[in-house]
Every structure is written in C-alpha cells, then in structure tokens.
Design brief:
Blueprint lengths: L3 H4 L13 E8 L5 H11 L3 E2 L11 E4 L2 E4 L10 E6 L3 H11 L9 E5 L2 E5 L5 E5 L3 H4 L5 E10 L4 H10 L5 E6 L2 E7 L5 E7 L10 E6 L3 H9 L3 E6 L2 E8 L6 E11 L36
Length: 299
C-alpha cells in the first residue's frame, strides 16, 4: 500500500492569504524643514532618501525596504499614533540617534531604548517605534514598515473598524488581544498591518496626514465608498482617496485617517526602491556592501 498520503506534510494555507489590500506603500506627513528631516530620517534612523523622485525642496521621499515616508514641505503634520519600522541593527541605531541629538536640540526629538526596540519622536512629534528583525512577528524583513498603529478614542467599536476593512475594502481584518490589550487590525499586504488601539488621552484634531494602500479589486471598494458619500478625491485613473472609517451598519464615523488608494496598474506599484547600508562610512568602507537587503536570506 502506498503510504504517501499519510506522510504528506500539512500546511495552514490561510497564512498565505492577503485579502484585497496588497500593499502599504507609504505614510505621508508634511514637514517644514528638510534639513531637520534629513538629520532625523537619514542620519538618525539610517534610512535612504529616494535618489530618483522628489529630489527638490518641495518634497522628499524616504525609502524603508519596500515602503516609504513621503514628506512634503509644508506646516508639520503628526500621525495620531505610531509608525512601526524594522531595521537591521538597533545598537547602531542608538549610536546614530545619540550623534544627531545636538543638531535636533530645541525640537520635539527624543529617543529611548525599550524591551521592544527603540521609541523615537521626530522633530515635530511623530512617534516611530523601531524593532530588530523578527520573522515570527514581522515576517522575513530586515528593513521595512510592518505596521501603522492608530490611537483611537476609548469606547470606539473595534469590531466595527475591522468590519469596515472586510466589507468595504475586501481586506482580512479582525480584533485580537495582546500584552497591550485589545485592538482591531487589518492586513495591508505582505507582512504589513494597520492597527487601532484605544487611548484615554485626548486626541488632536485630524490634520490631513495619510497612508497609501493598493487594492487588487480597485473598482469594487470605490463603488461602495461612493454609495456612502465617502470618496474625497478622484485623483486620476489609478487613484482615489477617502478619509473616514465608518460603521457599515450605521455609517457613523469611527475614525479619520486619509487613505490614498491605488490600483495595481498604478505606475508606481511595486516599484523597486533603493536602500542604502547605513553601516557604510568613508572611513570604514567595504566594497560591494553599499546596498541594504530588506529581506532575510533563505533558511
């Protein structure tokens, strides 16, 4: 008797599912000073200014693995929450942040080491949490943006937020509990999520910052958002925007954060980004090590 059937390994196929939201492309906050932004994002965090696009003074794009920060030059915006990054070396990060501390004096810049990585605040108050690579938590990335975590008012219906991402955007979403309590979540592509955690602190008014996502089914969610009066901008053939996450049963606004929604036909979808190896210096230079790899090697 052939016993191949009994020896065939079994797999959890649901782990491979992404749902309709296939990419977290960027987080966009405006900054009033490109010099300070360069000191913080490039010299401090060790990230890379995109060498090809937005190289002037009106905007700057900062690459992190397959994702970006977009930093248009205007009055500052602050995400109501925390952006999570993975970087290869937290010890080197702490040394870089210590070196830029003097240049960022008098701003809101701060940093501290925690048992979960490094907590930083940009010169204008944006909170960024940096983690060491961890395949179990974040997948096989060594450089990337695995999550955006939104602070939401206490008492917000977490299940309704997850339902919005499932029913309107076609995503995979739910509510779970971890060491910091219950939160809603939705998958935003391979290894990336948006999280929603309640806070008792008063939230500032929404200031226009946004995240960018890409959808496989682009027109279906557009129709549902349009029927509810939620579309805020018909950008072009490949893109639209909406601001409000609503309860699908009542249309009550649960939270506001602009989503820049792109199709997979957008010319910038899956664009390969340049990432530098922040460990390279002119005094300790290693040929062929200029580029950083954003993924772990095969195990």
């Amino acid at each position: 008797m052939n016993d191949m059937a009994t020896s065939t390994p079994t797999y959890d196929r649901t782990v491979e599912d992404l749902g309709n939201i296939v990419e977290l492309g960027h987080v966009n906050v405006t900054v009033p000073d490109q010099r300070l932004a360069t000191i913080f994002y490039v010299s401090g965090l060790g990230l890379t200014r995109d060498p090809y696009l937005m190289t002037g003074l009106e905007n700057m794009w900062i690459n992190i693995g397959r994702a970006q920060f977009h930093l248009p030059a205007r009055a500052p915006q602050v995400v109501r929450g925390t952006t999570g990054l993975v970087i290869p070396d937290t010890e080197a990060l702490l040394a870089r942040l210590a070196r830029v501390q003097k240049d960022l004096a008098g701003t809101k810049f701060s940093f501290r080491e925690t048992n979960d990585g490094v907590e930083t605040t940009c010169p204008w108050g944006n909170r960024i949490r940096l983690h060491a690579p961890d395949a179990e938590r974040f997948g096989r990335i060594t450089l990337g943006m695995p999550y955006v975590e939104c602070d939401i008012p206490k008492g917000t219906d977490l299940a309704a937020i997850a339902r919005f991402y499932r029913e309107i955007l076609g995503g995979i979403a739910g509510v779970t509990k971890d060491g910091r309590g219950k939160h809603a979540w939705a998958i935003l592509g391979d290894g990336n999520k948006i999280l929603f955690r309640e806070t008792a602190a008063a939230l500032p008014a929404y200031d226009g910052h946004h995240i960018q996502i890409t959808l496989a089914d682009f027109s279906g969610p557009h129709k549902k958002l349009l029927e509810r009066g939620l579309i805020t901008e018909e950008s072009d053939q490949h893109q639209y925007r909406f601001n409000d996450i609503v309860d699908t049963k009542t249309n009550k606004v649960l939270f506001t954060i602009e989503h820049e929604v792109r199709s997979m036909r957008h010319p910038l979808f899956a664009r390969q980004l340049v990432n530098r190896n922040a460990a390279q210096t002119n005094r300790a230079y290693a040929p062929e090590w200029d580029s950083a790899r954003w993924a772990m090697p095969a195990s």
